[in-house]
């Protein structure tokens, strides 16, 4: 039938456009999130990018992850940015001369040959490595892909569970809002409140030269980001034996760690090793999440400020992300689906994509980055979560909405959750990558 055929051609064309975005952002050994705004390699971006790239070139997807892991520090941390030395210093702030990884990070084992940041991002990498392997197991085995990445991924997780368990409950804490990936989430407003911002004029925001000011974090946010990062750097990027001005247990970050532990179990089994320790750790993390961060009143997980010991009473999408976990108790999974579809996130009523923050929250802003807009990587995770817990009809609807929004917005970085209008950059890599994955 003509309409069916038209639809098929349209999908094919759309898939080609997504592939072109990834091709255009490929830099020879890794992919930039966006050409102008983020001209280096970002950690969790690369994981999502590899998940898409595996359908286009499994070899390139492996390379994407291995380039990132080549910049791993000896203490196991995987830096959130790997800098491209060919890019002028002024193109992105903070640049390598701010982080000074190879000198300030020496004691923590920063690599010599490459400049990186000294903080981390959500650990989606083992999941990505496993999915990349599955896309072409024969190539993966021939190249010894899993043998090479597995020890690095294990060291990465050991760093998070060992060096970052400040609260002692078995959860990893983030020491900077950038580490959560959700930079200016309203969840960080309260924990950041006491942080004295770096003086205006002591740094220059490159993001405002290519991004719309109203879509980006504020100058006050940036002042605090700079202060915290400089303090961490000046303490040699040490985690132990010092008081961190910002330390938060983030449910999304920890859920992705647990999900990636499940992937490490698959990887161990494939390599003929015992998967049980990884499964046990995934269970422990899931248990700790439920015990420590679940909030009955809101029907979702909340962040917890390690310094004060108090939950942060803001409803951010990070608190829905544990839905990706296979081992989540059914009652909790059900409550998360309910919350997602209720007035605060409006899925299926006020919105087609899950917003990053409570539609009725005091800090809601439909344009400003992680304070309301809907993000494609996060919605891809939630779609998997819905499917995982048997909410197939909702998962199908979210999948269609995600594809439609990416198409209509020119593969935007994020969109206004009520109108789908593009915000931030367009031609954004992880948006294209999740489209490629969903179309496959
Ligand atoms: C955004 O974060 C960077 C800092 O890491 C920035 O604003 O300059 C966030 O959306 C983050 O989640 C993302 O990984 C990064 C690159 O896409 O951009």
Describe this structure in words.
With 440 residues, the chain is mainly alpha-helical. 48% of the residues lie in helices and 5% in strands. The strands form four sheets. The protein has a four-stranded antiparallel β-sheet. It has a three-stranded antiparallel β-sheet with strand order 9-10-11. A two-stranded antiparallel ribbon has the order 1-2. The structure holds (2R)-3-hydroxy-2-(alpha-D-mannopyranosyloxy)propanoic acid. Pfam families: MGH1-like_GH. One of its GO terms (molecular function) is hydrolase activity, acting on glycosyl bonds.
What are its keywords?
440 residues; mainly alpha; 4-stranded antiparallel beta sheet; 3-stranded antiparallel beta sheet; 18 helices; binds (2R)-3-hydroxy-2-(alpha-D-mannopyranosyloxy)propanoic acid; hydrolase
Task: State the gist of this model.
This protein is mainly alpha-helical and 440 residues long. It has helices at residues 2-25, 43-53, 58-70, 96-99, 101-104, 125-135, 137-143, 145-163, 177-180, 189-192, 207-210, 219-234, 251-270, 276-293, 330-341, 376-388, 392-409, 429-439; strands at 41-42, 81-82, 173-174, 248-249, 294-295, 300-301, 303-305, 310-312, 374-375, 414-415, 422-423. The strands form 4 sheets. The chain has a 4-stranded antiparallel β-sheet with strand order 3-4-7-8. Strands 9-10-11 form a 3-stranded antiparallel β-sheet. It has a two-stranded antiparallel sheet with strand order 1-2.
């Amino acid at each position: 039938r003509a309409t069916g055929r038209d639809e098929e051609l349209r999908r094919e064309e759309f898939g080609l456009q997504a592939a072109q975005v990834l091709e255009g952002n490929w830099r020879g050994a890794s992919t930039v999130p966006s050409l102008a705004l983020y001209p280096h390699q970002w950690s969790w971006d690369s994981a999502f990018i590899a998940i898409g790239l595996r359908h286009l070139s499994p070899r390139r997807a492996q390379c994407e992850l291995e380039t990132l892991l080549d910049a791993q520090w000896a203490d196991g941390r995987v830096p959130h940015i790997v800098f491209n030395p060919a890019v002028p210093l002024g193109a992105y702030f903070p640049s390598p001369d701010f982080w000074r990884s190879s000198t300030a990070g020496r004691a923590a084992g920063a690599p010599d040959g490459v400049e990186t940041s000294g903080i981390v991002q959500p650990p989606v990498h083992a999941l990505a490595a496993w999915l990349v392997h599955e896309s072409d197991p024969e190539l993966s085995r021939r190249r010894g892909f899993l043998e090479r990445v597995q020890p690095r991924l294990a060291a990465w997780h050991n760093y998070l569970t060992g060096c970052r368990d400040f609260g002692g409950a078995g959860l990893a804490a983030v020491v900077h809002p950038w580490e959560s990936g959700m930079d200016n989430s309203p969840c960080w407003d309260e924990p950041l409140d006491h942080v004295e911002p770096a003086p205006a004029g002591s740094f220059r925001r490159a993001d405002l030269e290519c991004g719309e000011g109203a879509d980006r974090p504020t100058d006050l946010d940036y002042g605090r980001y700079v202060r915290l990062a400089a303090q961490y750097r000046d303490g040699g990027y040490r985690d132990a034996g010092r008081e961190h001005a910002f330390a938060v247990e983030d449910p999304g970050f920890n859920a992705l760690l647990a999900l990636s532990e499940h992937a490490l179990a698959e990887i161990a089994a494939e390599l003929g090793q015992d998967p049980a320790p990884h499964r046990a750790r995934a269970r422990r993390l899931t248990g700790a999440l439920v015990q420590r961060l679940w909030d009955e009143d809101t029907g979702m997980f909340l962040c917890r400020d390690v310094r004060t010991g108090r939950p942060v009473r803001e409803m951010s999408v990070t608190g829905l992300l544990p839905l990706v976990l296979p081992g989540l108790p059914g009652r909790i999974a059900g409550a998360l689906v309910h919350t997602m579809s209720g007035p605060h996130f409006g899925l299926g009523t006020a919105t087609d994509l899950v917003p990053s923050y409570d539609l009725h929250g005091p800090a809601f802003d439909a344009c400003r980055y992680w304070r309301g807009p809907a993000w494609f990587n996060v919605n891809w995770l939630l779609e998997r979560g819905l499917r995982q817990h048997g909410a197939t009809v909702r998962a199908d609807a979210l999948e269609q909405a995600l594809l439609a929004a990416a198409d209509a917005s020119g593969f935007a970085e994020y969109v206004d959750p009520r109108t789908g209008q593009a915000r931030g950059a367009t031609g954004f890599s992880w948006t294209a990558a999740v489209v490629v994955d969903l179309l496959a």
